[in-house]
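Researcher: Quick test of sequence recovery. Tokens follow.
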């Protein structure tokens, strides 16, 4: 579905969206402003038994020459100790290497529950950054009936049994700039 379909469904049914819906809406909004963006699915290692995953966005920053983390469900973004925005792969690597990861102070879940780095990054996202999946190309209407089909890939640790057949472990390729696509 595209963001127009999702908006119409929410309006007609008097409801909101889950993290996947919010991420796809935000990605399409960024794209409408000319910023490359992708919704990405973050899954745990034990995805067969732990079906709780989370969908966030990555948005291309021309000034940083990389993707950056944006999470519409938690109004969250993540930086290093110097205030430089990070992408999900950098956050995953920093967690593994026990390096500094900083969550924005006003992060919150659905404008209801304030988040801490310990809850959001250390507890929730650390487990959900094992597999990271995204459509290869940016675009409108990537999922649902009548979707514009684009390749979908999963970044997986080398030797792991990823949930999708299109798994790869080449982080440089996965995080490449949208211009290289």
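Model:
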């Amino acid at each position: 579905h595209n963001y127009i379909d999702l908006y119409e469904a929410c309006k007609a049914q008097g409801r909101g969206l889950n993290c996947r819906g919010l991420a796809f809406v935000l990605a399409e909004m960024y794209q409408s402003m000319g910023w490359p963006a992708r919704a990405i699915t973050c899954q745990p290692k034990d995805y067969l038994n732990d079906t709780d995953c989370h969908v966030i966005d990555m948005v291309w920053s021309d000034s940083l020459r990389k993707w950056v983390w944006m999470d519409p469900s938690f109004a969250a973004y993540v930086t290093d100790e110097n205030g430089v925005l990070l992408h999900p792969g950098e956050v995953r690597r920093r967690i593994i290497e026990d390096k500094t990861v900083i969550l924005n102070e006003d992060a919150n879940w659905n404008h209801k529950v304030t988040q801490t780095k310990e809850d959001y990054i250390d507890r929730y996202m650390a487990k959900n950054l094992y597999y990271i999946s995204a459509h290869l190309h940016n675009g409108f209407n990537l999922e649902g009936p009548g979707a514009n089909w684009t390749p979908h890939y999963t970044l997986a640790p080398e030797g792991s049994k990823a949930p999708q057949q299109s798994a790869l472990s080449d982080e440089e390729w996965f995080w490449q700039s949208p211009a290289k696509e």
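Residues 137 and 150 are 6 Å apart (CA to CA).
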